[in-house]
Amino acid sequence: MLKISKYRVDKYLLIPIVLFAIISIITIYSAQTLLPSTMQDLALKQFLWYLVGFLLAYGILVIGNDFMLKNAWILYVLGNLSLVGLFFFGKEINEAKCWYSIPGIGTIQPSEFMKIILILLIAKLIQEFHKKYTSPTVLEEFIFLLKVILIVAIPSILTFLQPDTGVVLIYLLITICMLFISGIRYRWFIMLFTILGLAIGSVLIIYFCSQELFIQIFGTSFFLRVDRLLDWSSGSGFQLQYGMTAIGSGGLFGHGFHHTPIYFPEPQTDFIFAVFASNFGFIGSFLLLALIVFFDIRLIITAMKTSHDIDKYIIGGIVGMLIFQQFQNIGMTYGIMPITGITLPYISYGGSSLLSYMIMTGIIFHISNESMRYTNK
């Protein structure tokens, strides 16, 4: 007999999220030993953010994704308005206006939620495009791509001016991943990577040949950002050197929970993996990486099981974003990737980022629920 189960969550998705929550809270608590007295409540705050996040995820599971997809354009406009508002009402931290300060709550970073909005809107545009054109011509694809580029360019420019280069990279990667699985011609990606390669190459040539000319063309702010990105290639920088030392000092089993003997900046966010590796050593780090890989693979399996193309596009954007952030964040703590300020999903401290991931989690739960709701009794 066929039984309809209304709400079901894939345990292989839920269990990793719960483990991420535990790992995040205990690692942030350990990182507090490196932080000033005014920041000794971050673990408690992360615990509260996770509670709110699980409630959000459950709410989306119940309500469904259709509401957000139907209102994707409205969310997009509101998201861009929130980015514009930062220039007037944003709180400046480390020479960047990326946050709103809300009394009693803390700071909110709109760009974190723009990532979700772009995933939903691009998925909707891809679905509408394929419904309209079953066998699109090159010109029809070109016009579609121009539309997508314009949509992504607006928040990218606003976020870049805050400035926040790391999130802009995430916007672009989300777009590329979703377009890649959309079924459009691969020639567009060859052209895109060629253009990007030439543009990046030209910028680097000017940077290395004449830094004065570089500043005249691109400005001091962009010069400092490029300079910071290139610090990793020489292994220089106080944060990188001490972070790597902390990881190496952990050895096989680590110094133990709440023991991080070497100081480095931003241990609760950018370099959270270095704190975990210092506490739990190579064995702990390997197990965390295995958990991350398992979760990513499970997301891919969820995408393969769903019968709705738009769900595949959504999960494709989420998986692309997560893998990039995981590789980038962990890679920069080992000195093999540039330091960009990109946090480790589900692990690093941050209310806005965590809530955005939990909203994505709710979206994934709903997609998984649609695939699992019919079971044989």
Structural account:
The chain has helices spanning 11-31, 42-63, 66-70, 72-89, 110-132, 138-160, 165-180, 187-209, 211-218, 220-230, 238-249, 272-305, 309-333, 351-372; strands at 2-4, 91-93, 96-102, 106-108, 374-376. The protein has 14 helices and five strands. The longest helix has 34 residues, at 272-305. The termini are close together. The chain is mostly helical and 377 residues long. It has one domain (2-192, 221-376). The strands form two sheets. The chain has a three-stranded antiparallel beta sheet with strand order 2-3-4, with helices on one face. Strands 1-5 form a two-stranded antiparallel ribbon. Helix 1 (11-31) runs antiparallel to helix 2 (42-63) and helix 5 packs antiparallel against helix 13. 70% of the residues lie in helices and 5% in strands.
Tally the beta strands: 5
Rounded Rg: 21 Å
| Helix fraction by DSSP (H/I, runs of at least 4) | 55-70%
Structural class based on helices, strands and sheet pairing: mainly alpha
Tally of contiguous helical segments: 14
The outline comes out as globular
Major β-sheet profile: 3 strands, antiparallel
The side-by-side strand order for the widest beta sheet comes to: 2-3-4
Strand-residue fraction?
5-15%
Task: Give the mean pLDDT.
Answer: 89
Low-confidence stretches: none
Element pattern in H and E: EHHHHEEEHHHHHHHHHHE
Q: How many independent structural domains? A: 1
Separation of termini? 6 Å
